[in-house]
Design goal:
The protein is an alpha/beta fold. The protein has one domain: Spore Coat Polysaccharide Biosynthesis Protein SpsA, Chain A. The chain contains six helices and 13 strands. It has helices spanning about 35-45, 55-65, 85-95, 115-120, 180-190, 205-215; strands at about 1-5, 25-30, 30, 50-55, 75-80, 100-105, 110, 125-130, 140-145, 150, 155-165, 195, 200-205. The strands form four sheets. It has a seven-stranded mixed sheet. A two-stranded antiparallel sheet has the order 2-3. A hairpin with a 5-residue loop joins strand 9 (about 140-145) and strand 10 (about 150). The radius of gyration is 17 Å and the shape is globular. It starts with a strand and ends with a helix.
Length: about 220
Amino acid sequence: MRAMILAAGRGERMGALTADRPKPLLDVGGSTLIERHLIALAAAGVREIVINLSYRGEQIRAALGDGARFGVRISYSDEGEPPLETAGGIVRALPLLGAEPFLLVNADVVTDLDFAAWLETRPTNALVLVPNPPHHPRGDFGLDPEGRVTHEPPLLTYAGVAVLDPALFAGLAPGRRALKPVLDAAIARRALAGVRHGGLWIDGGTPERLEQARAALAPRA
């Protein structure tokens, strides 16, 4: 299986932290955000990884290279400015992702999700959902008793981790495009599954939440 790490965002909410570097290269727990994912994916046996680039993308390319030191092989999908949003970035990267389902991961999330265990059991199209954090109390999606994603409460928060079939994006024109309408269409067809992750998950998209992630990963005395 291939994976795509979403790393093209500007990270405007990070303020001065991303004035001279892209958010995926911010440090947390002794590694950068994106390095943590590369290490976890390699440990799960995922060796082919696509990374999309936009804001200061040349720094990400320089920092990670071809991925050999992480035990993976990285291909880059350059989007230019502005970034193409999630679905637009996926559409652009489809030639690199191939025809099989791929793992999608937001670069700025910190999680202890066991990728290997999840990938062994997940359906073709599936989202990881987490309890609603304080900054997103309303959630995004529900889960029915059969494990299908719905819009019915109680709602959980999309964790920024999914396995998606490229067929979901067939026929979509290139350009800026959000992911949610693609997911909503799959939900309407009852074609999207979900799993609830109750372990560590932090969206490191603000300075405060990045510090929260650093504290969670700090060695215990």
